[in-house]
Amino acid sequence: MILRVANPIYDSVFKYLVEDLRIAKILISALLKKEVLEVEVRKHEYTNGTRDNISMFRIDFGAKVRESDGSQHLVLIELQKTWLETETLRFRQYLGAQYANPDNIGKEESHEFGIPMVTVYLLGHKVGDIKEPIIYAVHKAYDYYGNEVTEGIPDPFVESLVHDSIIVQIPRLHGRVNNKLEKVLSVFDQTHKDKYNRQMLNIDEDNYEDDTDMMYILRRLLAAASDAKLRQDMNVEDEYFTAIENRDTAIMNRDKKIAEQDQYITEQKNQIAEQNNQIAEHMKTLQATINSLVNRGMSLDEISVVMGKTIEEIKSIIG
């Protein structure tokens, strides 16, 4: 059965989706590939409320995870989602603010340490020529000779200064469902977008009927599709992005016109330069001819008659 559900690529729908802590737990567990025991939304939520020149949705989670050895610890999840190609500096600025946030400092006995952090980027655009839809940029520690250091790692001091990143290229999903994470992310796959309404996705629920977590996510998105306020919020986002697209199109056309004008001017300059070279070569030929006639003993009057030029013109040629 095909379900028409709200498209979570929209900030408003995505926010509605992950505000459900069960879904946040499912998503974070799939991203980290670890058992997540608890999830909470951090007290500061960052969203792009100004709508200046970019759409970037941000939300912070605290997740208690259990490692394979049974140990448990808190991890900060800094999740950022954007539709548009974004300067990495914007991500870095936000990340710097998170490092400086005193709420992200933990305490252990007599000293403080930074809580381990994982940054997640859900991108509505492609990153260069990287074909893989999901990229794990994981830090490791090495000695001087390039050998990986494992003894004593992870260490609170090291974990306070570095972090791992997970990058998801939504346009690269293209129906791939090879693992748990790709299955969860399949609800973002824009190949399911409704032909007549990009705010909706057409999802075959039969593909998920044996997975209670995925069915729960679909029900949440189904509820979002019938929510009047969310539909209005999506309309606002569409208006915003239409304005952005129109602006970018106008800029692109302007830049194209400027480039064409620059090319025309360059061609004209090249033609003028070529003409000047031809004139210079012609003047050299005339000078050589006049000098040859002078050396033969001809007067300027005689040369004027032979060359069909006035005496003044001949004088200007020979300088």
Characterize the structure shown.
The chain is of the alpha+beta class. 45% of the residues lie in helices and 20% in strands. The chain has helices at residues 11-18, 21-32, 88-100, 156-161, 180-185, 212-225, 228-295, 300-307, 311-318; strands at 2-6, 35-41, 56-66, 72-82, 105-108, 111-114, 117-123, 134-137, 164-169, 200-204. The strands form three sheets. The protein has a six-stranded mixed sheet with strand order 2-3-4-7-9-8, sandwiched between helices. Strands 1-10 form a two-stranded antiparallel sheet. The protein is elongated, with a radius of gyration of 34 Å.
Estimated structural class:
alpha+beta
Number of strands: 10
Question: Strand portion, in percent?
Answer: 15-25%
- SS element count, helices: 9
Short description:
With 319 residues, this protein is an alpha+beta fold. Helix content is 45%, strand content 20%.
